[in-house]
Amino acid sequence: MSGVEDLIRAGEGVELEFKKSLAEKDEILKTITAFSNTRGGTILVGVDDSGNVIGVDLRKGEIEDFENSINQLIEPKVYPDFQIVSHQGKLVLKIDVKEGFNKPYFYRGACYIRKEKVTRRLDRDGILELVSHKVSFDSIIFEGECEISNRLIEDFLKKAGERRGMRIESTEPTIVLKKLNLMDRGKLRNGAVLLFSEECSSHFPQAVIKIGYFKNEEALDEAVIEGPIQRQVEEAMEFVQKHIGKGYLVRGLERVETWEYPLEAVREALVNAVLHRDYFSNSPISVKIGDFGIIVENPGELPPPLEIEDLSKEHPSIPRNPLISRVFFYMGYFEEWGSGTLRMIKLLRNAGLPNPEFSQSKGFFKTWIRSLKSLESELNENEKMLFDFIKSRRTVSRKDCELLLKLSERSIRRYLSKLEKIGLIKKVGKGKQVFYESTIV
Asked: Is CATH 2.30.42.10 the classification given to domain 4-135?
């Protein structure tokens, strides 16, 4: 229902409010805030509570003044659409408010939601609940025209069937997208465009991977990978394989292909970046390959309450983009929710490489799969000798290290602390039974 007459006939409700004039400024601003925190909605100014059109008399610049009040008094910023329409020979001001993606919204420090046809102020617990149900980018209704690819839908169904035993009886895109909650009331969600449109990166220019191979800080090969996000992961993997070392191991009569870095660990880093990135940010995902290893950086820090140290132990899964994450799970891109970083650590250790380094700063999250060369370049001669000694033994004590290097207890403690901090060794045991062992096989 887009016309004023249809809206009035429907009556006030969760998504519709009548106001006589802009003189009810305080109540209108509360309702704009409530719509932003709920499902969006429309305010008709110039209509009384009974649905009678009384018209609105607007002085010059009044709408601009009202927009300024919205900008000054509602946080975060909201941007309603204002339209003056004629109905029954009278003017009605139609204010359309979209559901916000940066909830909660506040008016003069208070938070409001829409409950049936009433605007209600939330208490502390209500605000916390609203934060926990914050709208994700992939769930927002896509504004615009977009063609969904039948081939991409069929590829999804094939992989989901083979890897997860998932069965959807129809290959009709609309039916599949509804099953995946990627459509709402006949409209696509952003997640559908990211996954199943060949023009994904045209609609969302930030949804790309910038990847490069570097030698002494000089880029020798670069690419911008566009298109459906699952294909971006595959093309990024192809680029990585082109620029990392490859060899072979002979096992019995079989020759086994080996890589400088375990491919599944690299894939985990790329999948995590694509699924957990902040798509509201205009920045792309960045991947750099070189003597230092592989660095994958995406916009979007860890969602609270997760901290960096949680990533090296069992932790809850808090997906920033739950709809596209679920599709990736069905397609077999990861095995268990919340296990990606632990699997990456295990894969790297089994390959004789140090643990990945996770960090975040200024709105970005970084995964660094380090090369042994990059780590060892940070060691002085005594530290290198100490590391080689620990690596050659199953476990060593601090006393063993003192005897080897003939240095003071204080110096040995400092060296061991550094090796432990950068992930080359780990401490095992407690008290007097503390030993050190290499994390590198």
From this structure: no
Contacts of 86 (CB under 8 A, 6+ apart): 92
The radius of gyration of the chain's CA atoms, rounded to the nearest angstrom, is: 28
* Helix or strand holding residue 398 (H, E): helix 398-405
The DSSP-derived string for 400-420 is: HHHHHHT--HHHHHHHHHHHH
Domain 378-438, second-level architecture: Orthogonal Bundle (1.10)
| In the block, residue with structure tokens 């305010």 | 43
Angstrom distance (rounded) from CA 134 to CA 114 = 15
35-68 residue pLDDT tens: 999 889 999 999 999 999 999 988 888 999 999 9
Name the CATH topology of 209-372. Answer: Heat Shock Protein 90 (3.30.565)
Secondary structure (3-state) at 65: helix
Read off the pTM: 0.67
Written as one letter, the residue type at 205 is: P
Over residues 147-203, the pLDDT tens digits come to 999 999 999 999 999 999 998 889 999 999 999 999 998 999 999 999 999 999 999
Q: What would the two tokens of residue 295 be?
A: 């660095």
